Every structure is written in structure tokens, then in C-alpha cells.
């Protein structure tokens, strides 16, 4: 409820600022994210404070899947969006296809200070989530599955299973189940991964397509264990469902910020990009939602309490247990071929 | 019967002209909102840095496309047959009872229309899933020891799709049955035929146009179903419409998606054309 109030207040402030500075041609950008609770949380934690600090107006738009829109907008030659928050792979793929602007990190000091693995020539990690092994505590009151090898072990851990209907993170999980170390995954051995997936396929009850669906499957007891996003599982757990997950062998994934090629407010967009990954703003994000900051320096700000940090996917100790997804590999030709192979795997 | 052919033809022509003028705004809207986008879609399927039939070659040679089309036709056929078996008795009943009862029956048929498809799909999920109402009840009665897998498969998809499409079967059937003169049945009876014989020799053949109309509606609508198989199919029931969306969302292949959509559209048109050889199309579409 306070979040909502803040949200309203933020909007009012933004509006007021828009009015007062409009005489001096107020700087503004259009920012696009995925909507819902997530966009509300970042509005409070990052967008409103950034707008205030920079004295700009941030217009918001939301879309669950920005990629087709990015393609059509830039393709039309007159994009209306400036900055998108989207799965990192799209920033890279878009960069290669000339849809996304290359970044000059000398103008984005906050991002330049981040680990190299967390940025690309076209993008900056904005927040982290994780594809984790989640399970029902009713089915597994003790000796719960704790690795992908356990997930594949249908004798030791009988029960119904679900995986995401998408190769990203699923192939990684299959390889880890087959004994590949989390830091030795890339380049993915695609044949080996699909072979391992064939093994578990008969035991997969549902191949889920949306995060909401994965949460519902676990909550309703439709499946006993599944791959799911950490935030979805903890949300269901908070509502009282007897479910839990492990970060062990999780696949650490991120969404990133990137700027559309030919963005109408390019300079302001770059300024915003720097501000958005400021450690303090970033540290505020996990206080509003179960996602980890994209900038690890956020953990040094003392804004995030240690017990809260321990729950977050990108907290250094948690991150160490996981595999860091290589979006560079997934947007390479081999990655795209693996993605296409998924469709025939599903329908066989 | 008394009017001559000449003035009536002239009158008809004038009427047609007036009709055309009246529908022209609607035609314009259809042109802008349907014909142009579909044309653009068709163009995308054959143009990618020059004209190419690559997208169509893939649709016709790669087996995942074949499998999807085959599955879609199978499911549509199953749904049509089940809807006919369920819908015919309902329409028959609505036709043979008094006005009040028939209004009640038809309202019950049409009522679900006003609920969103999404809500109905979720309702079936709540009924059919492992911890759903039906499984819980059967377990309570000790009929089963393990929950039945009724959802996240083709079965769940078919059940929910039948439910959603049933009105499209019942209404054309009812409309056709309404027009069958009751005295034909009396005539049959007066000639000594048993009720079942009059039904099979007189009523059933006369209701066949309604059967064809209802089946066409249900079959064609089912070909394009998306949200129900998406929610209740468990990911394995990949119908053609899902191929279209996946091609766009997952693989960013607008051309391939367009080609699939065009093939689906053409199959629907082919079905309509075939049906129109047997009955007038406005019977299917307008329930005249």
C-alpha cells in the first residue's frame, strides 16, 4: 500500500517537474520495462529517484516482450522508445542487427566500474534473477532435491516435474545434470544437452510458458518440482504455499538496459543509464521486490541488510553457487541454432 | 407469384445498389483493418531481401510444421465430432419443447459466450487438474487412488475447446431445425412410421444443412485456437496458431510466422469453398 502511495507521489512529482521545467525544454526519455509488480518496484527504487536527481521526465511504457516491438520501431526508422529493460540476449542480438546503440562507457562511469561479465558493448546489467530448482515441501519434507542431477533422478525423487518451454537455462540445467561444472558450461554442448533432456522428457508433466503459470503449477500441487524463477517461487511461498528452492546450480540471468538505435533522446538516455545503475538506487530495488541488483557494488552500500542480501540471486555468495548465463553464446549462431532445435525437440 | 420478372429485376438491381452504398463504410473498414494487413502479412512471407519461397518450403518440408498441422486438424476433427454429438440433442430438445423452455435452453447455451475464453480455460484447469475438483471428488469416493491426468495434455485441450465452441454448433442446428415444418413429422406418423423412423427418415436428413453449417463453424474456429491449447496443452500440444506466435516471439522469424499464417488462412478458405458447394455460405455464417 505504501508502495502504491509512493508510486502516486512519484507520478505527481514527475508531473510537477515536467510542468516547472517545460519552459527550459525539459529533458525527457521514454523508458520501457515489463510491467506489473516489477515495474512498480523499479519505479519506486530507481526510476523516480533518478528522474529527480537528473531533473528529467521519465515516461514509462510496458510490454511483456519488447523484442518484436524493438524490431518494428527501429525498422520503421522512427523509434518512440529510448531505453528498454529487456533480457540481455535481446540487447546483444539487437546490437548485432543494428537495432541497438553501441555504448560509450566513458560516459557511463557507474557501469564502467561493474564486472566485465555484467555488461556488453550494447548493454548494462540492470537486475538479476535466477532459474532455480524449486520443489514442494509437502512432497519433500526432508532430503529435498538439491541439484539438477537430483531433478533428473526420478527413482530417488519420484514426483511430477515441470520445465520451462524454452531452451535458455534448460539446456544449461541438463548439462549440469550430466555432470558439467557450472563454470565450464560454455560453449554449450548442445547435442549432449538435448540427449540428457530426452532422458527426462517422459517425466515432464508440463512445459510452462509463463512465469505465472510456473508459480500456479507449484502452488496448486500440480507438480512436485520444477525449474522456476526465484522471485516467482518466493512470492508463492510468502502467500503460504509450502514451497522452497535452492540457489545451488541456479542459472543466474539478467535483464539489461539498452538504447534503441536512433532513440529520440539519446543523450538523456545515456545520462539515465548511468544513473539507473548507481549503487544506491540499485540497492533499493531488492527492498521492493525479490530481484538482485545488476550492480554488485549495491551490496557495499549498507542499504541492503545482510539477511536480505542472503536471499538475493546476485549476492556474491549465492552467485558463486550458480552458473552465469552467457548471453553472448546464446546470441551467437550456435545459440540461435540451439533455440531453433528446441521446437522440433518439443514436438517429437 | 403475380409480379412479372421485369420490374422485379429492376427493383432488385436498385436494391442491390442501395445496399452496396450502405455497406461501403464497412467495406472500407474491412479493407483497412483486414485486407491490407493480411496482404502485408502475405508479402512478408515471400519477401526477405528479395522474393523467396524459402518460408513455404520450410512449412511444407520440415516435420515440426507437418506435425502441428496434423495435430491441429486431428484436434479440430475430434472437437467437431464431440460438439456435434453433444450439441444435436440440445438443439433438438430446444426445438421440440415449448417457447419458454426453449428460450431457457438457448440462454444456457449462449450464457458462457459472455465469459472470457481465458476465464473459461482457467475454470477447466481448476476442475481438471491433479488437485482439481473432479480428481478430489473421485479420490474422496475412492474410485481412484492416483489423480487422473486430465489436463496439460490433448485431452484437457479438447474438453475445454468443445465447451467454448459448443454454442457455434447448437445455434445453427437450432436455426435449421426451426425451419423444418412440424407437419412433415405428423405426416410420417400418420403413415404409420414409428417416432424413431420419422426421425431418421425425415427429420435427420432435413437437419443436415444445419449439421454441415455447425460443423464448419466449429472446425474452422478450432483451427485457429490459441489460448486454450496454450494453457491446457502442457506445452506439447502445439497447434498451428502457437507455431505462429512462437516463430515471432522465440525465433524472431516474422517471415516464417507469416507463411504459417497464410497456409492456415488458405486452408480455412479452401474449407469454406468446399462447403459452399454443398450449402449456401450465408447458412454457415449468417444462420439465415
Fold and architecture overview:
The complex is a heterodimer of chains A (348) and B (288). Chain A is α/β, with parallel strands linked by helices and 348 residues long. Helix content of chain A is 43%, strand content 20%. Chain A has 16 helices and eleven strands. Chain A has helices at 2-21, 36-54, 67-75, 88-96, 109-112, 148-152, 170-177, 190-200, 211-219, 230-238, 266-276, 279-284, 306-309, 316-320, 327-330, 333-347; strands spanning 28-33, 57-62, 83-87, 119-120, 123-136, 161-164, 204-208, 225-229, 243-259, 292-293, 323-324. In chain A, helix 2 links the parallel strand 1 (28-33) and strand 2 (57-62). In chain A, helix 1 packs parallel to helix 2 (36-54) and helix 9 (211-219) crosses helix 10. The model of chain A is unreliable at 1-24 (pLDDT under 50). Chain B has 288 residues and is mostly helical. Chain B contains 13 helices and no strands. Chain B has helices at 5-46, 54-61, 63-96, 99-110, 117-128, 133-140, 154-178, 182-190, 195-223, 227-232, 240-249, 254-276, 281-285. In chain B, helix 3 runs antiparallel to helix 4, helix 3 packs antiparallel against helix 9 and helix 9 packs antiparallel against helix 12. The longest helix of chain B is centred in the N-terminal third of the chain and has 42 residues, at 5-46. Chain B is flat. The two termini of chain B are 22 Å apart. The A-B interface holds A 65, 67-68, 71, 93, 160, 165-166, 205-209, 213, 220-222, 339-340, 342-344, 346-347 and B 62-64, 67-68, 129-131, 149, 152, 230-231, 234-236, 238, 246, 248-252, 254.
Order of helical and strand elements of chain A: HEHEHEHHEEHEHHEHEHEHHEHHEHH
Mean pLDDT metric of chain A = 90
What is the approximate shape of chain A?
globular
How far the N terminus sits from the C terminus of chain A, by CA atoms, comes to 48 Å
Strand content of chain A: 15-25%
Classification by helices and strands of chain A: alpha/beta
How many DSSP-defined strands of chain B? 0
Helix fraction of chain B, binned, reads over 70%
Query: So what's the oligomer here?
Result: heterodimer
Using only C-alpha atoms, the radius of gyration of chain B works out to 23 Å
The percent range for helix content of chain A is: 40-55%
Counting DSSP H or I runs of 4 or more residues, the number of helices of chain A is 16
Largest sheet of chain B: none
* Protein chain pair with the most extensive contact, residues per chain: A-B, 24 and 23 residues
Using the alpha-carbon principal axes, give the shape of chain B: flat
SS-based class of chain B? mainly alpha
Amino acid at each position: 500500500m505504501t508502495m502504491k502511495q509512493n508510486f502516486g507521489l512519484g507520478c505527481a512529482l514527475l508531473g510537477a517537474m515536467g510542468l516547472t521545467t517545460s519552459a527550459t525544454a525539459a529533458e525527457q526519455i521514454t523508458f520501457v520495462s515489463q510491467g506489473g509488480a516489477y515495474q512498480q518496484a523499479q519505479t519506486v527504487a530507481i526510476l523516480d529517484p533518478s528522474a529527480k536527481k537528473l531533473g528529467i521526465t521519465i515516461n514509462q511504457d510496458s510490454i511483456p516482450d519488447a523484442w518484436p516491438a524493438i524490431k518494428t520501431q527501429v525498422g520503421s526508422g522512427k523509434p518512440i522508445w529510448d531505453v528498454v529493460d529487456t533480457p540481455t540476449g535481446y540487447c546483444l542480438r539487437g546490437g548485432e542487427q543494428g537495432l541497438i546503440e553501441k555504448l560509450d562507457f566513458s560516459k557511463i562511469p557507474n557501469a564502467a566500474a561493474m564486472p566485465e561479465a555484467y555488461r556488453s558493448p550494447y548493454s548494462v546489467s540492470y537486475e538479476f534473477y535466477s532459474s532455480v530448482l524449486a520443489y514442494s515441501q509437502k512432497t519433500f519434507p526432508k532430503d529435498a532435491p538439491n541439484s539438477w542431477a537430483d531433478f533428473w533422478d526420478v527413482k530417488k525423487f519420484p514426483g511430477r516435474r515441470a520445465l520451462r518451454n524454452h531452451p535458455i537455462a534448460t539446456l544449461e540445467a541438463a548439462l549440469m545434470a550430466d555432470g558439467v561444472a557450472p563454470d565450464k558450461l560454455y560453449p554449450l554442448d548442445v547435442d549432449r544437452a538435448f540427449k540428457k533432456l530426452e532422458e527426462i522428457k517422459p517425466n515432464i508433466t508440463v512445459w510452462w510458458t509463463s512465469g505465472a503459470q510456473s508459480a500456479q503449477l507449484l502452488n496448486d500441487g500440480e507438480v512436485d518440482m520444477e525449474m522456476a524463477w526465484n522471485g516467482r517461487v518466493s512470492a508463492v511461498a510468502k502467500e503460504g504455499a509450502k514451497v522452497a528452492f535452492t540457489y545451488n546450480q541456479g542459472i543466474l540471468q539478467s535483464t539489461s538496459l539498452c538504447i534503441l538505435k536512433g532513440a529520440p533522446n539519446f543523450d538523456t538516455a545515456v545520462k539515465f543509464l548511468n544513473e539507473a545503475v548507481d549503487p544506491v538506487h540499485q540497492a533499493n530495488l531488492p527492498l521492493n521486490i525479490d530481484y538482485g541488483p545488476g550492480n554488485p557494488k549495491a551490496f557495499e552500500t549498507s542499504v541492503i541488510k545482510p539477511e536480505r542480501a542472503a536471499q538475493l540471486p546476485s549476492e556474491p555468495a549465492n552467485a558463486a553457487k550458480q552458473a552465469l548465463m552467457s548471453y553472448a553464446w546464446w546470441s551467437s549462431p550456435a545459440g540461435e541454432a540451439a533455440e531453433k532445435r528446441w521446437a522440433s525437440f518439443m514436438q517429437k | 407469384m403475380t409480379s412479372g420478372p421485369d420490374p422485379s429485376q429492376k427493383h432488385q438491381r436498385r436494391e442491390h445498389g442501395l445496399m452496396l452504398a450502405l455497406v461501403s463504410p464497412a467495406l472500407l473498414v474491412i479493407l483497412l483493418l483486414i485486407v491490407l494487413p493480411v496482404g502485408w502479412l502475405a508479402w512478408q512471407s515471400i519477401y526477405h531481401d528479395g522474393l523467396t519461397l524459402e518460408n513455404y518450403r520450410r512449412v511444407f518440408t520440415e516435420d515440426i510444421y507437418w506435425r502441428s498441422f496434423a495435430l491441429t486438424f486431428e484436434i479440430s476433427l475430434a472437437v467437431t465430432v464431440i460438439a456435434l454429438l453433444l450439441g444435436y440433442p440440445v438443439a433438438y430438445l430446444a426445438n421440440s419443447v415449448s417457447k419458454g423452455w426453449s428460450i431457457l435452453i438457448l440462454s444456457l447455451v449462449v450464457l458462457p459466450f459472455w465469459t472470457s475464453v481465458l476465464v473459461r480455460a482457467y475454470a477447466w484447469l481448476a476442475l481438471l487438474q491433479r488437485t482439481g475438483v473432479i480428481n478430489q471428488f473421485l479420490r474422496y469416493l475412492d474410485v481412484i487412488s492416483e489423480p487422473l491426468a486430465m489436463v496439460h495434455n490433448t485431452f484437457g485441450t479438447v474438453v475445454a475447446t468443445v465447451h467454448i465452441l459448443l454454442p457455434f454448433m447448437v445455434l445453427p442446428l437450432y436455426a435449421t431445425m426451426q425451419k423444418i415444418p412440424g407437419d412433415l413429422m405428423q405426416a410420417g406418423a400418420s403413415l404409420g412410421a414409428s417416432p424413431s423412423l420419422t426421425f431418421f427418415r425425415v427429420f435427420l436428413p432435413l437437419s443436415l444443412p444445419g449439421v454441415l453449417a455447425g460443423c464448419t463453424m466449429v472446425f474452422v474456429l478450432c483451427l485457429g485456437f490459441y489460448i486454450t491449447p496454450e494453457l491446457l496443452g502442457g506445452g506439447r500440444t502445439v497447434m498451428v496458431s502457437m507455431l505462429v506466435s512462437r516463430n515471432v516471439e522465440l525465433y524472431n522469424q516474422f517471415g516464417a510466422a507469416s507463411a504459417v499464417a497464410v497456409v492456415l488462412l488458405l486452408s480455412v478458405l479452401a474449407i469454406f469453398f468446399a462447403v459452399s458447394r454443398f450449402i449456401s455460405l450465408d447458412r454457415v455464417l449468417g444462420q439465415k
